[in-house]
Each structure stands twice: as C-alpha cells, then as structure tokens.
Amino acid sequence: MERPVIGVMPLWDEQKDCIWMLPGYMRGVEEAGATPLILPLTDSEAALKRTAALVDGFLFTGGQDVNPAVYGEPKSDRCGEVCDIRDRMEAFIFREVVLNLGKPALGICRGIQFINAALGGSLYQDIPTELPSAITHSMKPPYDVPAHAVRLLPESPLAELAGKERLEVNSSHHQGIKRLAEGLQAMAWSDDGLVEAVYMPNHPYLWAVQWHPEMSLGDEDSRKIFAVFAGKAGE
Questions:
Q1: Predicted TM-score of the model (pTM)
Q2: Catalytic residues
Q3: What integer pLDDT is reported at residue 229 of this predicted model?
C-alpha cells in the first residue's frame, strides 16, 4: 500500500530569515507509516492549491503566536512574535482544503490554537496573566516527560484511542483556547479547565492537541495520535 503524504506546516525563524523544522514532527509522521513533506511558506493561492493537490493530510505544527487579528482582537503586550504570512497560508489551506475538501488534519500546540481561531473561537493571549493556576503549561526541558495530566471526555475519539480517562502530557505554550469555536468538541482539559484537545464531529478527521506528542514519541499514546492521523490520510 502506498504511503500517504502529509503536508507539514513550516516553522519560521525571523531572525535567521529561514524555514526550519523540528525532527519530531517528521519522525512522528514517518514512524506512523506516512511520508512528511515540509510545505513552502507562502500565501500564494495558486502555489498552495498546487501543493495541496500533492498531499493527503495536513499537520498544523507549533510556532509563533496566532495574530489576535485572526480572532478579531487587538494584540496585547503579552502576545509574542507572530507570523502573518503563516496565518494567511494556514487560513487558506484550512478553509479551502481541510474544510471544503475534507482532507484529514492534525493540529499540535499552535495548531489547536489556530484551528480554534480560524473557526471563530478566541485565545488567551497569555495564560499566566489571564488564567493563572498551579498547572505547568510552559515546562522546561527535557520535553519528553510529563508536565501535568489531562482528563479525557468519556467515549470521545481520544478516550477511545487511549483506552483511559487521563493522560500524562508534556506542555510548552503560553497561549490556549479561551472561547471554543462552534463546530469543535473538546476532548480533554487540564485540571485548571483549559481545553487541551478538540475534534470536529462533522469532519472526516480533524483533531488537535495542545501538548507535543512529537516530543514524546517514546510514549505509546503519542505514537497512537500520529498513527490514527496517518491512517485516516491513507484512506
């Protein structure tokens, strides 16, 4: 059986003026039986349509903060660096390919935040100041160990995949879902109430998690997340 191709959203280093990639994203896709393809950073609709035709699914990776303009709010002084061209690129792919054509997509960290914002939800621009708690959402290295637990919605797709009610996850973010977008269903929460995983019930496959399974591939639950995504892309 031919391996499905997963389009991986590029990471952008503004200081070095370069596209780059964390190996965990590539390894997670490859070990799940798919072929990763790093996408070009562009907002050219013609280029994106041509590129999208080559892939079977999309991985919305981590990276800079989502510009609050995406969800109709002014940028606070606590919001970090943004990448407007990436916001425009992902908005086009998400709308025209993931939603309109039903191609599978998985969001990780910034990915869950962007998907929620693109569907009309909003974000905490800075969790430590807007949702202070004892939960460690921005851990220090190493990132392949748990930072906190999340509770899973019973009978949700993620709970069925994991076969348990709680997961121990890593965590490296300062933004997160504030108002959940219409059309998304939460699948997991941290103990301070922050949404940690979502899916779209009316889509063939659209999942997103706030933690970083690509940094904890020694964990079976992390590998399962990539495996089900690759499987859906290969259907």
A1: 0.98
A2: 109, 212, 214
A3: 98
SS percent in the chain: helix, strand, coil, step 5: 30, 25, 45
Measured distance CA(153)–CA(172) in Å, rounded: 22
φ and ψ at residue 29, rounded to 5 degrees:
-70, -45
Q: What does the alpha-carbon distance between residue 2 and residue 172 come to, in Å, rounded to a whole number? A: 34
Mean pLDDT calculated for residue range 87-110: 98
Nearest-CA neighbor of 129 among 174, 185, 169, 188?
174
Measure the CA–CA gap between 2 and 35, rounded to whole angstroms.
10
Number of H helices, E strands in the chain: 7, 13
Instruction: Please spell the DSSP secondary structure of 195-229, one letter per residue.
Output: EEEEE-TTSSSEEEESS-GGG-TTSHHHHHHHHHH
C-alpha–C-alpha distance, residues 174 and 124, integer Å: 8
Domain range for 158: 5-233
pLDDT of 1 over the 80 cut:
no
Torsion of CA 66, 206, 168, 175, to 10 degrees: 10
First-to-last C-alpha distance (Å) of the chain: 11
Domain tally, the chain: 1
Helix (H) or strand (E) holding 118: helix 110-118
Give the side-chain half-sphere CA count within 13 A for 86.
Answer: 25
Q: Among 231, 233, 209, 232, which Cα is nearest to 221's?
A: 209
Closest CA to 150 of 199, 195, 111, 106: 195
